[in-house]
Amino acid sequence: MEEEPKAPKVFANRTIEQIIRHMVGETVKITPQDYMVVRVVFRRLGGQWEKLVSGDLVHIELLKQIIGGWGKLPHPDEKDELV
Fold first, then answer.
1. Does residue 58 form part of some domain?
2. Assigned domain for 22 exists
3. Is the whole-model pTM more than 0.85?
4. Which of 10, 29, 37, 63 has most Cβ atoms within 10 angstroms of its Cβ?
5. How many domains are there within the chain?
6. Is residue 42 included in any domain, yes or no?
């Protein structure tokens, strides 16, 4: 039986998805691995989800920069357009 995700992971994924949809676009496909990569990079660069929840602008900007960089990468649904 599959376990339900914990609340912090649900918050993180929902936040990541909202920023991606706003910055990159509605049509980009987001895989579970994409969420994991953004969460790991955010933490490794000193990001703290607790501070993001409280509205800390430094952490919000850090997450936006990470997602901006992620958005510039080629995504599986875009490969056909590049060929």
1. yes
2. no
3. no
4. 63
5. 1
6. yes
Q: What are phi and psi of 74, to 5 degrees?
A: -70, 140
Q: CB–CB of 31/44 below 8 Å?
A: no
* Residue 52, domain extent: 27-74
pLDDT in tens, the chain (83 residues): 455 567 778 899 999 999 999 988 888 888 999 999 999 999 999 999 999 989 999 999 999 999 999 888 876 665 444 44
Rounded to 5°, the CA angle 46-59-53 comes to 110
Phi, psi of 26 (to 5 degrees): -75, -25
State how far the alpha carbon of 14 is from the alpha carbons of 8, 9, 18, 35, in Å. 10, 8, 6, 9
